[in-house]
Write a structure and sequence with these properties.
about 120 residues; alpha/beta; 4 helices; about 40% helix
Length: about 120
């Protein structure tokens, strides 16, 4: 079930990462490209902002998924998820059915924007 049915640029994207600098960097890339974003740095903040903003896409770091959030994200199956992987990781750390793409650090802004465009298509 998708919450948004407006143009891509009007869709809200949530960036969830316990590393604040990564979340800020990704948010700046997306804000510059015209997307609306929110950032969350812990599970409680993520839950509250997802409920409040009803994003169409979540970008979540693999380090955040490794925490107890992994089970909770599986339950939130209506949200498409892009996972940010560390360069040394070969695969997503847990099996989340709603992952539509992964991207590896360091993040290439063009690749990220292409993955977002494809995920929202």
């Amino acid at each position: 079930m998708m919450h948004c049915n407006v143009k891509d640029k009007d869709k809200i994207i949530g960036i969830i990462d316990s590393h604040i600098q990564t979340a800020v960097s990704v948010s700046q890339i997306l804000d510059y490209a015209g997307y609306k974003t929110f950032q969350a740095y812990n599970e409680e903040d993520a839950r509250n902002k997802i409920i409040r903003f009803k994003p169409c896409l979540l970008i979540i770091s693999s380090s955040f998924i490794e925490d107890k959030t992994c089970t909770w994200i599986k339950e939130v199956s209506e949200y498409k998820v892009i996972v940010i992987l560390m360069s040394h990781e070969g695969k997503t750390p847990c099996n989340i059915k709603n992952i539509v793409a992964t991207i590896t650090k360091p993040i290439d802004s063009e690749k990220l924007l292409d993955k977002i465009k494809n995920a929202l298509a």
